[in-house]
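Hi! If you just cloned this repository, the fastest way to understand the data is to look at a raw example. We've pasted two of them here, unedited. The first protein comes first, obviously.
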Amino acid sequence: MAIIAAAAFLPADRATGIAAAQTAAPDTVEHRASRIARALAEAEAAYTEGEQATLASLVGSLRASGLARREDADRDVLAIWANATGVESSPYRGRLLGPAYVRGELAAGEVWRSAQTFKSGVPSTLAVSHEGSGPVRMKVRDQSARAICDPGRVSKPACRFTPMYTQRYEIELVNEGRGRAVYFLVFD
């Protein structure tokens, strides 16, 4: 299981729509999106292993964070896990801003792409955790296909940036491993 702790960024200027360049965070700093991504992966493992007490604790923590599934996500695993532990599920209300998550599976070499709107002037963080094969590489591009974030081939991909303009960004995940990877992508 990957634990997300560091961020990597490309230099930015006004032409790229990024208000300020960010620097890599120290290994001791773990952003909220990274903590949520890690907790989602731990909850998936607890659910698979039948560890009800651990799962119930993680579901409670994830709910307290305000996390909801992204509107286009296939299924709400948080509700499935809550049901498995007997914890009452919260109603889904949709949201423009995070935190939100997407769970998916990628075969070796498979690519997943999606678009997400990020609001002008609001610091945004994306983090990925995965189990199984990997690493799962993340890239973020603006509407003009300019690279906003490409942490490279790392086990802990995370990006933090502040958009200058409200616009949609393309997010790409690639399983660079030799087998199947289950991932959680968190937006915050």
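Ok, and the second one:
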Amino acid sequence: MPIKPSEKEEQYFREQELKRQLARARAAQEAMAAAEKQRLKDLHYMHCPKCGQKLAPENYGPVEIDVCAGCKGLWLDAHELDHILASKTQTGPLRKFLKILGA
């Protein structure tokens, strides 16, 4: 004859099952968020924020700047402007432009 579990035992197992389901749902949500982040990165990486064309890396002295093939815009990553300004030997058009601005 089967023994019926007590009410506390049933409640405990319901809570454990709920915790497992919640953990699976969180893991699935995190995986979806990571996949969406990667998809957006793949879609927008090295594209011009202004016109959407591809960016081509070009060496400018000590740094590599990104130049848009469409609008010819220049895009700098973090601290690249500091490196350009710190370079005393650079005399290109970007350096001249920055001197005009007083940088």
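That's it. A detail worth noticing about the second one: The helical segments are 7-44, 80-86, 93-101.
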